[in-house]
Structures are given as C-alpha cells and as structure tokens.
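debug: dumping io for the single-chain case to check the tokenizer round-trip. Nothing else runs in this session.
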Amino acid sequence: MLFNSIEFFLFLPLVFIFYWFIFNKNLKAQNILILTSSYFFYAWWDYRFLGLIFLSTLVDYFIGINIPKQNTVKRQKFLLLCSLVFNLGVLGLFKYYNFFIDSFFDLVSSVGYVPNNYYSLNIILPVGISFYTFQTMSYSIDIYKQKLSPTKDFISFASFVSFFPQLVAGPIERANNLLPQILSKRKFKYSNGIIGLRLILIGLFKKIVIADSLSPLVENIFNNYQDLGGGTLWLGAFYFAFQIYCDFSGYSDIAIGTAKLLGIQLMTNFNFPYLSRNVSEFWRRWHISLSSWFRDYLYIPLGGSKQGVFKSIRNILIVFIISGLWHGANWTFVFWGIFHAFLFIPSFLNNKNNHQKTKINTPSNTSIFNIVLIIKTFILVTIGWVFFRSDNLISAFEYLWKMIFEFDINFVHRSGILFCLLLILVEIVYHNINIKYSNYFKWGLYYMLLFMIISKFNSGSSFIYFNF
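debug: decoded output
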C-alpha cells in the first residue's frame, strides 16, 4: 500500500480509531492491531511475500532468545552466524542472484568463452526486503554483543519487524529504540498528533508536488541525453537530486508522522543533507538510519579508524561499495558507492589529521566560505547522482561527458527550476514555523500545501526507494 493512495487515506484513520478508541486500554490488543495492520498493509502490495517476513521474524526471534542461553561463546557465534547466513542468503537470492550470475558470464564471455546456457531466475524483488532484513540482523547482533536483552513476547517482536509506517522504506530502526516503545503502554498526546499530521502533510507535499512533478522531466532528460546539450543535462542531474531527496525524505516524513499518531517515535532519517559542507557531513545528514547502521555493524567491526590509515581507507571503501550494492544490483550503484568513497576519504584524512570531527552545526569562519563549501559539495553529490540514475555505466559516462565538455545554455524544462525553488522556500518557512509566524500564517501555509497536494494528486505513484 502506498502512502500517497486513496487506500492509505482510508486505512490510517481506521487503524487510528481502533488503536486509540477501542484497544487503548489493552497493550496486547494494540500490538496485535499493529501486527495485523502491518501485514495487511504489506499484503496490499503482494500477499505472497508475507511468508518471507514471517519466516525472517521467526528465525531471529528464536535465535535472539537462544543466544544468551548458550554456555560458550562458540555456540553463541554459531547462532549469530545462522541469523546472518539466513538474512543475507534471502537478500542475496532475491536481490543479487541474477546480478552476480549475469556479471560472471559477462566476464567469462569477454575472455573468449561463450557459455551455451546458464540459469537465471525470474524473481520479483520483495518490497522492503533490504530494510527489514537489516533490522532483524541488528537485533540478533545486539543480543550477541550484550547490548540488548531478547524479548519473549513474539507479538511485540513481530510488530517491531513489520511496523507498517517504516516497513518498506525505513527508517531502519534499531531494536533498542523501537522495541521498548512497542513493549510499553502508550498514551495519546495531542501535541504528538499535531506534529504527526504536520509531518505527513510536508511529506506528501515533497512527494506529490515536488518529486512527482520533477519525475517526468528527469525521465525525459535522462532518456534523451544524447540529443540534449550539457546545460540541459546539468538541469536533469539537479532535478534528480531534488526528486530523490523529496521522494525519500517525503516517505520518511510520512513514516515518522504516522508513527507519532500511534504514540511511537522513529529516528530522524534526513537533516538538510544538501546543506552539507563536505561528503562526510552529507552522510551524517542523508539516510541517517542506513549510514549509521553501516557504521555500527560493518565499519566499526572491520576495525574502524583504529588500525592505521591504510586499513581505515580499506574499511571506508568496503562500506561504500556494499552501500552501493545495497541500493541496487547494478554496477552503476557500485560505482556510485566508490565515487562517494573517494569523496569521503579526503574529509576523513583531514579530520584525522586535525584530531577532531567536524560538527554539523559548527559555523565556518565566514558565511561566504560556508556557502562555497555547500555549493561544491552539492555539485559533487549531484555528479554522483548521475551514476545512481543511469541505466548502465556507459550511459552514465556519456551523460557526464556531455555535461562537462559539451556545455551550453540552451536550457529546456525550465519549469522544474520553479519546483526546486518552491521546495527551498517551503522548507525554510516550514521548519521555522514554530518560531516566527502567527497561527493565521501557519494555517494559511497548511491549507496552501493541502491545496497543492490535492491539485497534483496522482494515486499510485511509487516511491523510488521501493526498488531497493
């Protein structure tokens, strides 16, 4: 079920009414409602993959319970390995099997061996599989590291795994944040309800008004890049930068807002990433739940930055390559990850040499210098988005070549600039709304956003990150 659909606008109020007005005095009943609602929400897309979520839930539930019961570290490691093998195996089969098979036979074909046939599978990628497998894996890892105690309440654990607001596109929640909230009695707060509705409103605005309006412009430019000038290709890349931000952060806003309506706080997933002064800061602001997951469960276990510069750079490369693969089974994503790794390494080395980590909110010496760094970082990130958006590496490099070496000022699709400027204006006003503006202005803004959402509404427009 899509957040931007008529079905969801009927589904959410019904869940809200049952949750707070019928089952509000019974925590068990509330959690059963969360679980059944979440499974219904997912089944609306494809009921056949409910069994996969249930199996993933079952495996990590029993592994989590049994890890502390083992009297040797070796047995605990074995159970953790079972969790990792199962989750990564499922993810690998559904998401990467054909990619690696095709890549292998492309490689052997390039050296002269032409295979008669090979086996590829016609597999549908289950929506959200990259998100909930990471969520369940982190639960088992945290129990193994004694950072978390396992729960014996299967309903609550299953609700944690399948919690519908963030089930299919995050944020990727940690059990130590979400699970205690599900296990504890919740009380409705009017202030949380208001914040939740505001987040849903701004999320729908980002998705429906901005992202969906930019989508056909981006598609037209990327599909016809060979016939367009460099200036137009720059616009296409900038449009995609805003499209993917509004599409994904819009989803996260709706997810966090919906959870707030149910008395649950999800982690922040975006923090004005395009105001970053370097790529290191960008990754502390963009898809925070994923970047922090890779930091805690991959980068630090590999040794982090405590084993010398060479091994630190190696670890950074590994993390970004795997992060690229996480986003999709295509060499464009791998190259996108490598590109960001090489942008990240200078920031890492600079911070290491200065023995300090740049704080997100630390101002630079001059505002002009700060603005220059922000523009530079945005341009570099936008160049990276070309790899992310392109169908293959050849198209990506051809696109970039024309962008840089065949530049002109014969822009087309200028209307997209207005949507980007509209987003910037609304974000500035919206995120300062509690500080500067009267109630009349606030409600005027809300009604304006609602009017634009209704006027641009197109039920069934999918979110980009559903593909990952």
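debug: round-trip ok. The CA atoms of residues 140 and 399 lie 43 Å apart.
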